[in-house]
Amino acid sequence: MIVVLKSNPNREQLESLISWLQEKGIIIHTSIGEAHTILGLVGDTSQLDIDLIAALDIVEDVKRVQEPYKNANRKFHPEDTVVKVGNTQIGGGSLTLMAGPCSVESEEQVVAIAKAVKASGATMLRGGAFKPRTSPYSFQGLGATGLEYLKVARQETGLPIVTELMDLSQLPLFKDVDVIQIGARNMQNFDLLKAVGHQDKPVMIKRGMSATYEEWLMSAEYVMAGGNENVILCERGIRTFESYTRNTLDLACIPVLRKLTHLPIIIDPSHATGKSWLVDPLAMGAVATGADGLLIEVHNDPAHALCDGPQSLKPEVFDQVAKKLLKLHDFMKTLEE
């Protein structure tokens, strides 16, 4: 249920309403917008009399929310969420470029790539230390050592790092990571989602390969229900009948999610296609459709990469793509003015 308050509500009446709701076991999330203040009520609201609340002088409207996700719902939070990470941000009209290798292979490699992508306009470094692989015989990542190499790259460049957490046992190692990524295979690992919900750092949730929008948003709800409201959604392609590309990129998710949620939206064109030559056009499409940022894989020697070389861009190619993306983003902003 949401309660829309009138402008400048009487303080005493508002405190009385909040106290009454809390006595009934209702959790209240307050969202202050430019025009209205909204109280998002979470809990057993079936016991509440809508007409009684609507009759209060400070209340403009009361609505029941049918969707099972409450905290992630735009009805609860009309203003877009902006997630701040270090000196950069995700959302709020900016275009965030997260770039780096699929897998960290050495300190020298990740530092060199970090310097290159930063020079091209990236504001965050992505890189895998722990790698979920379909085959148990594939490279599984450097683990804790890979995390240390990422930290060295951050120290050298100032770029915040985003990397994937695969298991609860790894969580202590992520204390100094800037953004925790929950991969597609773990999107419905509810114990893991609950755990990161109690962290004080942003969490980026990749869409499961067969997940619906509602299932995806319910994963975000798990994190937010734990108190962590800094959640980012990442579309990385879904599984369809098409076999030419690795997955099928769902750009329709951008306008759909804009309607359903206030959370920022990142697009991963690298995993979506598995082909480096498709990254450019699909990244352009994502910017034109209104994405808040892109997650792009960059490798200095894709032919010899230990993981996902065919979908990785060389630094010089990323430089060209990044310049186009930033120009397109600036152009799209002029159309909105």
UniProtKB/TrEMBL annotation:
Domain DAHP synthase ferredoxin-like residue range list: 1-67
Pfam families named among the record's database cross-references: DAHP_snth_FXD, DAHP_synth_1
UniProt lineage: Bacteria, Bacillati, Bacillota, Clostridia, Eubacteriales
UniProt keyword annotation of Cell cycle present: no
Keyword Zinc-finger: no
Name recorded for this polypeptide: 3-deoxy-7-phosphoheptulonate synthase
EC number: 2.5.1.54
Residue intervals of the DAHP synthetase I/KDSA domain: 87-331
Organism: Candidatus Oscillibacter excrementigallinarum
One GO BP annotation of this record: aromatic amino acid family biosynthetic process
Molecular function as annotated in GO: 3-deoxy-7-phosphoheptulonate synthase activity; aldehyde-lyase activity
NCBIfam families per record: DAHP_synth_Bsub, PRK08673.1, PRK12595.1
Superkingdom to which the source organism belongs: Bacteria
UniProt KW keywords: Transferase
